[in-house]
Specification:
Layout: H1 17-27, H2 32-39, H3 44-58, H4 63-70, H5 75-94, H6 100-117, H7 123-132, H8 157-166, H9 171-181, H10 187-202, H11 213-225, H12 239-251, H13 263-275, H14 279-289, H15 295-298, H16 309-328
Helix pairs in contact: 1-2, 1-3, 3-5, 4-5, 5-6, 5-7, 6-7, 7-8, 7-9, 10-11, 12-13, 13-14, 14-16
Length: 335
């Protein structure tokens, strides 16, 4: 358990010690630990998360290219090559780099190839979903598929269905769909993203990370609102906000094995419970986080909108201390 006041640590590996060791090797330019780790990964949810975190670290290096050169027939290396290609294309898009379109097409071809060499793997389809956001005009047919429900927007539903067929309720696939929806227009599109999150959470089984999706949309709505009076803001204590936080705690946190909880989901849940004044539940989530944190969603509550990680960390520490004080001091749940 982290002590109150101790600066939290951001570590993409979180509680996954084996992943942390592999990341250290990747940063040193070595790929063998990555290969061994992925060979030992025995669930699609863990596979999806580990390949994503490894790719984010490897994207600035040639380590995956070196691995593929040594083992050109390795399907795992090909999956990581697709992952890295997607990460580079997305970064180029964010930076408005002149090579964005070229990198996008390279990544698409890498992913398309892996859908055939690894036909049971959800990751290639998750990667294609990630690339869909680069098609801002929705010019590609695969990004204009009719939705499964009338109130949902047109989008890359076929790609989501392919990922879902291989790993039902895949967490990253649904987050990639949210990212596809976010930038397209103003409040109407954000409402459609909220509808998607509610639809996904409403059909998810107990223990699924999809129950946390509505909390991400609420943070995005707050971020776009421009409201920064966090102590007085009623956005987080509204009836629907409180209901979403409670449902995420009951349907996900209380029923998900600790080893399968992601740091971003834990942070969003702790943030939502603290904002909803449900301090006893928030205290339990902070305990599950231990010494780790993620800058989002705390940055959106920091003074000035959270331009620095230091200010975001201060909000995190204040929320943790307040939740622990209320929960362990024997006081009421609500302040």
């Amino acid at each position: 358990m982290a002590r109150d006041g101790v600066q939290p640590a951001y570590d993409p590996a979180g509680h996954d010690g084996a992943l942390r060791s592999a990341l250290q090797e990747v940063r040193a330019g070595r790929w063998m630990s990555m290969r061994i780790l992925l060979e030992q990964t025995d669930s699609w949810s863990q596979w999806t998360r580990r390949t994503q975190v490894l790719a984010a670290s490897a994207a600035g290096t040639d380590v995956v290219r070196a691995w593929l050169a040594e083992e050109p027939r390795s399907v795992t290396a090909a999956v990581m090559h697709a992952r890295v290609s997607v990460e580079r294309a997305l970064r180029a898009h964010r930076e408005e780099h002149r090579r964005t379109h070229e990198l996008w097409l390279q990544a698409w071809h890498a992913c398309d190839a892996v859908t055939r060499s690894a036909p049971h793997d959800p990751v290639p389809w998750v990667c294609l979903l990630a690339l869909a956001r680069l098609d801002e005009g929705q010019r590609w047919d695969e990004h204009r598929v009719p939705p499964p429900e009338p109130m949902l927007p047109v989008g890359p539903w076929g790609l989501l269905a392919e990922a879902d067929r291989r790993d039902p309720d895949n967490r990253e696939a649904h987050h990639r769909m949210l990212q596809f929806l976010y930038p397209r227009g103003g409040s109407e599109r954000l409402a459609r993203a909220a509808g998607f999150a509610q639809w996904a959470a409403g059909s998810a089984p107990p223990g699924s990370a999809l129950h946390v999706l509505p909390l991400y949309v609420r943070v995005e709505r707050y971020r776009r609102s421009g409201v920064r009076e966090a102590a007085l803001d009623l956005h987080w204590v509204a009836e629907d906000a409180t209901r979403e936080a409670r449902q995420a705690f009951d349907s996900w946190f209380a029923q998900c094995p600790p080893g399968e909880r992601s740091l971003p989901d834990l942070n969003h849940l702790a943030h939502a419970l603290w904002g909803a004044l449900r301090f006893r539940e928030a205290d339990q989530v902070f305990d599950a986080l231990g010494p780790y944190w993620t800058p989002l969603p705390w940055a959106c509550r920091a003074p000035g909108g959270g331009g620095s990680a230091r200010r975001a960390a201060e909000v995190f520490l204040q929320a943790r201390a307040r939740s622990r004080s209320a929960a362990r001091g024997g006081g009421r749940r609500h302040r």
